[in-house]
Amino acid sequence: MYVCSCFGITETQVKEHAEAGACTPRQIASACKAGTDCGSCVRRIQAILGRGASPRREPALQGGLAGANDLAGRGEPVLSGLPEAA
Ligand code: FES
Fold it and tell me: By its UniProt entry, which PANTHER family does this protein fall under (predicted)?
């Protein structure tokens, strides 16, 4: 099934690029141009990437940034939840 009709890119092709290391819609666009014309497929590409088609980045720092991720998940400013730098 086509994900990007502007360039004829299929879901399988997007998954292949993801498995080859493309983790973001921008990286998919670099690999095959999908999403660079009308842009209507970008959300579909994001959804495919979000389904674990590519290795998800682990939280870089356990603890500190995990709290920031919680704030971001609640739509609150992330930096306000971080401790002041000493
Ligand atoms: S459908 Fe992908 S750029 Fe238009």
Answer: BACTERIOFERRITIN-ASSOCIATED FERREDOXIN
What are the boundaries of each domain within the chain? Answer: 2-53
Q: Does domain 2-53 have CATH number 1.10.10.1100?
A: yes
pTM: 0.61
> What residues contact 78, with CB distance under 8 A and at least 6 apart?
68, 71, 72
Structure tokens at 29: 């666009």
33 CA → ligand 1 middle, Å: 9
Closest ligand 1 atom to the C-alpha of 37? 3
pLDDT in tens, 26-74: 999 999 999 999 999 999 999 999 975 445 455 555 555 555 555 556 6
